[in-house]
Amino acid sequence: MLRATELIVQFGQTVALDRAGIDIAPGETVAIMGPSGSGKSTLLHVLAGILRPDHGEVRLGEQRIDILPDGRRSQLRLRSFGFVLQFGDLVPELSLRENVELPLRLLDVQKAEARTRSAQLLRQLEVDDVADRRPGQVSGGQAQRAAVARALVHRPSIIFADEPTGALDSATGELVLDALIGLAHQEGSAVVLVTHEARVASYADRTVFMRDGRVAS
Ligand SMILES: Nc1ncnc2c1ncn2[C@@H]1O[C@H](COP(=O)(O)OP(=O)(O)OP(=O)(O)O)[C@@H](O)[C@H]1O
Fold first, then answer.
1. Pocket lining: 86 vs ligand 1, CB cutoff 6 Å
2. How far is the CA of 18 from the centre of ligand 1 (A)?
3. Nearest CA owner, ligand 1 atom 25
4. Where is the ABC transporter domain (predicted)?
5. Do 40 and 34 contact (CB within 8 A), yes or no?
């Protein structure tokens, strides 16, 4: 479904990706592991259409997304992708509920429908009791579960997660991962999970390893 080939990304003298490639099948969970600086986050950003590669291509189905103009790539990200980052990417001024509804509102889904769908996910992630609080008024694990709900709410084809449990203790991290992978599976979303922890990668269907900007299976 998502296929990247021959990706090269350079930041000045640093070669972050050196002919990296990867295939993501519909609904599968793939962990990307590797040492610090090996290019994991850069690969995630290119796959997700956030960063344009200097060379190579990224296809979502038949469509080349790396050459789309910025506005069309933003639209595609909003519609087809979900994101869970390490921390702090919920909008601090909005309640958890409003954060989860946000992708649907941006996609012009009716308010009532957005509310129903968000409420369902907030309940499944067991944060419905704190849904009216802002991110600063809940625990890190609760905020991260709301971020998982937000990533899933519009039924994206792929969720990109960059160290999603990096800021949590291990028990809370496992709850968040269980929820992310379990619900993504249930909804048919693929997950691309960057992590340096083997324990986290063990949740994936498959792990790829990066070294010096290249992907080795
Ligand atoms: N915006 C940037 N400007 C300059 N160099 C960058 C930038 N982003 C990444 N790099 C460099 O590119 C290389 C790959 O970085 P990247 O963040 O992809 O690695 P990583 O495997 O995700 O590392 P970590 O596990 O430490 O997060 C590193 O040498 C990094 O210093």
1. no
2. 13
3. 36
4. 2-216
5. yes
pTM: predicted TM-score of the whole model, two decimal places: 0.91
Q: What ipTM score was computed for the predicted complex, to two decimals? A: 0.95
Residue 10 CA, ligand 1 centroid: distance in Å? 10
Question: Whose CA is closest to atom 31 on ligand 1?
Answer: 37
Q: How far is the CA of 15 from the centre of ligand 1 (A)?
A: 9
Q: How many CA atoms lie within 13 A of 152 on its CB side?
A: 28
Q: Which amino acid is at 79?
A: R
70 Cα to the center of ligand 1, angstroms: 22
Cβ-count burial 139-167 (b if 16+ within 10 Å, e if not): ebbbbbbbbbbbbbbbebbbbbbbbbbbb
